[in-house]
């Protein structure tokens, strides 16, 4: 079994160096059309190893945070932070200490590093599991000078072996919680990152490769540059469309399952799983958007475990695959071709079921039906066919 992983996003700072804005402190400023914090949250939320997310905010910022995150706030825990970053992190750790069970690994991340990528998170988790502590870091490329108070150079610091520390910084939960508690008891509040607290407490902390893009938005210029980067990326957004087709034979029976909804009928559909043609077509459409094969590759009809299975499982797996590949599903459209049963009375229930399994809002799901004008095998009521189309956006930042 894999270790449980929680993430603490510290977002309680005042952003003095970035200056004040009508939008509030820098974590609530909009970059590429979304709040900095919303980007950061999305990066962690879409990572398959993160079980729980705690967002540490300033006592005055609840409304700002709710506005910045909208419905995406659901499922994240909001905790009030303190006057220093170190105190805010401790508030997050103490909150997690009340969770049952407590996480095995905790990742502590600056909310103002919105460009964090999944590969960096992976490296930190793996090294933290193995060594107790790990941080992403990049070798320093500039020559380092120590300045005197009169702005002359006092010293050139040899840069060999010097790294710039990034976040998320990952630790065994109990170890970093004890280290923070010890630091607080010793009256130390001058640590600028969590690794330095762990080092001080005697924990080994590994360096793993960080990412050039994983910058901390500190100044007004950083925020403007982040906004430009995202807008450039958005201009190159990769929208993909996938389609799927399926047909199943009608045999004697009492009901059919379409889009996961049971509809009384004088026939039933025969075939793979519960023979829900709509969800089979939709699964194929979703997989097609990222070249991930088709339903038969993932759920072979020859495998007895799928006999009679609810096809919702297939759609949910396809949704997970799309998300793992960095896609955001934009809409799903299903057309049924059948003479009977009548779809109109069940259409809203079918749309709601598809919306739920894809995570789409209702206005992004369409279900419609047409007859085959009594022509051919569909017209003779020998089967029901469905065509599905899905659109997915790739290449966005988190
Ligand atoms: N009391 C604090 C101070 C900082 N942070 C968080 O720690 C991260 C890194 O800190 P920094 O970039 O220094 O943010 P601020 O403290 O807001 O900036 P400044 O020092 O310019 O005021 C940010 O996500 C910030 O919100 C926090 O949670 N609680
Ligand atoms: C944690 C950190 O981002 C690692 O580089 C950095 O130390 C935060 O410093 P700040 O002064 O709170 O911005």
TrEMBL record:
PROSITE patterns: ISPD. Keywords: Isoprene biosynthesis, Lyase, Metal-binding, Multifunctional enzyme, Nucleotidyltransferase, Transferase. It catalyses: 4-CDP-2-C-methyl-D-erythritol 2-phosphate = 2-C-methyl-D-erythritol 2,4-cyclic diphosphate + CMP; 2-C-methyl-D-erythritol 4-phosphate + CTP + H(+) = 4-CDP-2-C-methyl-D-erythritol + diphosphate. It holds the Pfam family IspD. Residues 240-398 are annotated as: 2-C-methyl-D-erythritol 2,4-cyclodiphosphate synthase. The record marks 17, 26, 272, 371 as: Transition state stabilizer. Pathway: Isoprenoid biosynthesis; isopentenyl diphosphate biosynthesis via DXP pathway; isopentenyl diphosphate from 1-deoxy-D-xylulose 5-phosphate: step 2/6; Isoprenoid biosynthesis; isopentenyl diphosphate biosynthesis via DXP pathway; isopentenyl diphosphate from 1-deoxy-D-xylulose 5-phosphate: step 4/6. Residues 1-239 are annotated as: 2-C-methyl-D-erythritol 4-phosphate cytidylyltransferase. SUPFAM superfamilies: IpsF-like (SSF69765), Nucleotide-diphospho-sugar transferases (SSF53448). The record marks 159, 216 as: Positions MEP for the nucleophilic attack. Its EC number is 2.7.7.60, 4.6.1.12. One of its GO terms (biological process) is terpenoid biosynthetic process. NCBIfam families: ispD, ispF, PRK09382.1. In the N-terminal section; belongs to the IspD/TarI cytidylyltransferase family. IspD subfamily. Belongs to the IspD/TarI cytidylyltransferase family. IspD subfamily. Bifunctional enzyme that catalyzes the formation of 4-diphosphocytidyl-2-C-methyl-D-erythritol from CTP and 2-C-methyl-D-erythritol 4-phosphate (MEP) (IspD), and catalyzes the conversion of 4-diphosphocytidyl-2-C-methyl-D-erythritol 2-phosphate (CDP-ME2P) to 2-C-methyl-D-erythritol 2,4-cyclodiphosphate (ME-CPP) with a corresponding release of cytidine 5-monophosphate (CMP) (IspF). PANTHER family: 2-C-METHYL-D-ERYTHRITOL 2,4-CYCLODIPHOSPHATE SYNTHASE, CHLOROPLASTIC. This is Bifunctional enzyme IspD/IspF. It comes from Jiella flava. The lineage of its organism: Bacteria, Pseudomonadati, Pseudomonadota, Alphaproteobacteria, Hyphomicrobiales. The gene is ispDF.
